[in-house]
């Protein structure tokens, strides 16, 4: 990137700016050298770097190096303004940081950081009426290309925009919303300040609203000059371009991930409840849970497992990934990024712990019931014996 220049006692920077009025400035840094000391001058090839900015005209910076080969002299700097212009004066110290686009070793501006698409996933209900949602947003629906019927893709903003090769979502007015029947919502290229208005569109058709909304974030970067179809990174994925099938593929994994997080927390609550029961049994030697409460926990554990397997389709491969290998690569990478397989394994282990405790407590409750029936039979037999004795005594008298 930037390299240190040794044995260059002088350094000059020339900046020219293209705009309606001619403008130029010259910055010169020169050392105080002894006149009697011999010197040898040399010239280095100039480099021209173009700085891209959105709020100012294009700028061309010419770097030129010249000087005396003497490493023992320190370099002092001074700023010389050569022309007066209407632009506001700005003085930059040598040690001040200057913001600029990322520049590579070959002088090219990195374009990957500029084309970033924010992806936000939300989960605030357990069911969404997709038919009603599609009925009220017919103009925004993107026709499905697979047999999957548990989600719908809506397009907002510039409806004429068709993402694909040469057409990029990042930086455009086009945004997408993927809504799943089990309650997950994934937004692509939606600003943080506009999230609420898109969530309200789905909230009208949602049921089973949760007291707390779950949220997760991700990032997709578009890099048309990428050598491969996709390249993964920490909390982001880089693609040559993001199209509708890519949105469906990435959205399906994020929707499953944010919903799985909700079910994992539900199971964590059951684990914590059984942990408290076991600690109480450790201290008192008994527990006070009734059979109705225990059966409710059994039903909740079974329904959570069924929802994860059936509603989320956690083990069902995307139809798009089946048809095209490049989307299969995206699907597998994002699943590994969000650790869906490992998280489900953890969920399954916790459910086995809950199942073991339920079986144990059921046996205790069953034993209690058996003991009660046994004592009831003993009482009835004793009562019958007492009545028989009373009858015998009464007859003998």
TrEMBL record:
GO terms for cellular component: mitochondrion. Residues 177-346 form the DUF155 domain. Belongs to the RMD1/sif2 family. This is Ethylene-responsive transcription factor RAP2-7-like isoform X1. It comes from Hibiscus syriacus. InterPro entries: DUF155, RMD1/Sad1-interacting. It comes from the Eukaryota. Pfam families: DUF155 (PF02582).
């Amino acid at each position: 990137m930037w390299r240190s220049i040794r044995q260059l006692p002088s350094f000059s920077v020339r900046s020219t700016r293209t705009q309606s009025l001619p403008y130029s400035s010259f910055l010169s840094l020169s050392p105080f050298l002894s006149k009697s000391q011999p010197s040898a001058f040399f010239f280095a090839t100039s480099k021209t770097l173009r700085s891209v900015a959105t709020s100012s005209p294009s700028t061309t910076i010419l770097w030129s190096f010249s000087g005396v080969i003497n490493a023992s002299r320190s370099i002092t700097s001074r700023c010389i303004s050569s022309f007066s212009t209407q632009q506001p004066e700005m003085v930059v110290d040598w040690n001040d940081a200057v913001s600029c686009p990322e520049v590579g070793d070959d002088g090219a501006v990195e374009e990957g950081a500029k084309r970033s698409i924010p992806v936000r996933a939300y989960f605030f209900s357990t069911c969404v009426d997709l038919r009603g949602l599609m009925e009220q947003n017919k103009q925004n629906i993107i026709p499905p290309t697979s047999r999957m019927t548990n989600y719908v893709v809506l397009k907002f903003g510039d409806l004429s925009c068709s993402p694909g090769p040469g057409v990029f979502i990042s930086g455009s007015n086009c945004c997408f919303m993927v809504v799943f029947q089990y309650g997950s919502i994934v937004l692509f290229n939606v600003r943080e300040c506009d999230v609420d208005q898109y969530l309200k569109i789905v909230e009208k058709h949602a049921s089973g609203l949760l007291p707390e909304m779950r949220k997760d974030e991700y990032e997709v970067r578009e890099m048309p000059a990428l050598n491969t179809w996709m390249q993964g990174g920490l909390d982001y994925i880089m693609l040559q371009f993001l199209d509708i099938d890519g949105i469906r593929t990435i959205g399906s994994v994020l929707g499953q991930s944010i919903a799985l997080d909700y079910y994992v927390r539900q199971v964590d609550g059951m684990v914590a409840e059984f942990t408290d029961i076991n600690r109480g049994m450790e201290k008192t030697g008994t527990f006070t849970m009734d059979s109705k409460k225990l059966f409710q926990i059994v039903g909740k554990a079974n329904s959570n497992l069924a929802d994860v397997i059936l509603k989320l389709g956690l083990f069902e491969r995307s139809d798009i990934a089946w048809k095209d290998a490049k989307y299969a690569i995206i699907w597998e990478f994002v699943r590994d990024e969000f650790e869906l397989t490992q998280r489900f394994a953890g969920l399954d282990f916790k459910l086995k712990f809950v199942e073991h405790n339920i079986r144990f407590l059921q046996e205790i409750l069953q034993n209690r019931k058996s003991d009660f029936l046994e004592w009831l039979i003993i009482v009835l037999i004793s009562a019958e014996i007492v009545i028989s004795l009373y009858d015998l005594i009464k007859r003998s008298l």
